[in-house]
Design a protein that fits this description.
The chain is built from two helices and five strands.
């Protein structure tokens, strides 16, 4: 299963991308994460449904200094491969 996500709130400058990558790698997910110009953090992840559900819960909480306001999450039907292990894009 493959998903796209976007996290809104105070999520830049607080270690959110590093947190997301660490959590995804712990769940053995493929994918990437990056900061967006609008202040959100976006990415894609791929893996088993149970691992993605756990990842979603962790993203919704975020690291200690983040304040997640909203998490957008949706399934993708894309056939290209994602980076594995999970990567941080600059």
């Amino acid at each position: 299963m493959r998903i796209a996500f976007r996290v809104h709130g105070a999520v830049q400058g607080v270690g959110y991308r590093r947190f997301a990558a660490r959590e995804a790698q712990a769940l053995d997910l493929a994918g990437w994460v990056r900061n967006e110009a609008d202040g959100s953090v976006a990415g894609e992840a791929e893996g088993p449904e149970a691992a993605l559900a756990a990842f979603r819960a962790r993203l919704a909480q975020g690291p200690a200094f983040a304040a997640v306001g909203r998490l957008d999450w949706g399934a993708l039907d894309v056939r290209s491969s994602l980076p594995h292990p999970f990567e941080i894009y600059r």
